[in-house]
Amino acid sequence: MSSKTNNLSITEDVIRIVTIAPQGRLDTVRAVEFRKQVQGVIDSGVKNLVLDLSQTPFLDSAGMAVLVSALKQCREHGGDARMVWPQAEPVRRILSLTKFDRVFQMKASVEEAVASF
Amino acid sequence: MQHQANLGTSMPVIPHDKLGEDHSTRPEESNMNSANAIMLDIPAGLAHVHILSRCARALLENITNLEEREINLYNLELAIQEISVNIVKHAYAQMDGRIRMCLTLEEQPLRLIITLYDTGKSFDPSQIPQPQLGELQEHGFGLFLVQQLMDEVEYNHSPTGNRWKLIKNIPLTISSGR
Hints:
The complex is a heterodimer of chains A (117) and B (178).
Chain A: E1 2-5, E2 8-11, E3 18-20, H1 28-43, E4 48-52, H2 61-76, E5 80-84, H3 89-97, H4 100-103, E6 105-107, H5 110-115
Parallel strand pairs in A: 3-4, 4-5, 5-6
Antiparallel strand pairs in A: 1-2
Chain B: E1 4-6, H1 16-19, E2 38-43, H2 49-61, H3 69-91, E3 98-106, E4 111-118, H4 141-149, E5 152-158, E6 161-169
Antiparallel strand pairs in B: 1-5, 2-3, 3-4, 4-6, 5-6
Helix pairs in contact in B: 2-3, 3-4
């Protein structure tokens, strides 16, 4: 929204941010459906994503591939993605081991992630 | 054609020309003969691979003083999951087949030996590039994770099939001495 009054310009920008929070394991079996769901969100015009892994107890390379694909597409559309750290320490270590925590902007919570856009 | 690769850090590489003579590398003649070996034989499908990884996890869960318990259980499960999925997707390429797994828990030093065997297509591990860590890369992390999470990783191919051998040293917490 934008309007002009005497010597005053008021502009309001609304950024659309969608949070995707997989519940449960994000492995090869689940990754196929998860990819479709993420693609559906991106295809609907969303270009800013919060990938909330806080409730993800297991992540394998197939799940990781979907996450990177989502980030790539967001950036290709001029947006970006944030990732919320998993609560599960083993998954956190995998993200660090693969340096996904450098590829993604990692946040402690969804609120923090949304606020960072 | 035979391939042998030491994908870990400490297992010696058997020269290609010696592989045909090394019958002990065949799973049915190696640790599968151990009296305490656990063996599973499953259809090579994505819906079944978790059976292998969770079985191995269950075996380690019996060790009460396992160091960094959740981390080690998770890493073992993930490594077996990655190899099993690799077999389903690439060795069998969605064709019907079987995956056999043998688990042997050895003592002194305490370590778990996991052998995974299939009769699908072979591959050359040296052709698998290492992932560019820190880059926007979608694929190539599976084998990298296995290498990082296991102490020794070995792959070889012979006329009887493909064999993955993973070894995980089992770290234990130090006893309080009571």
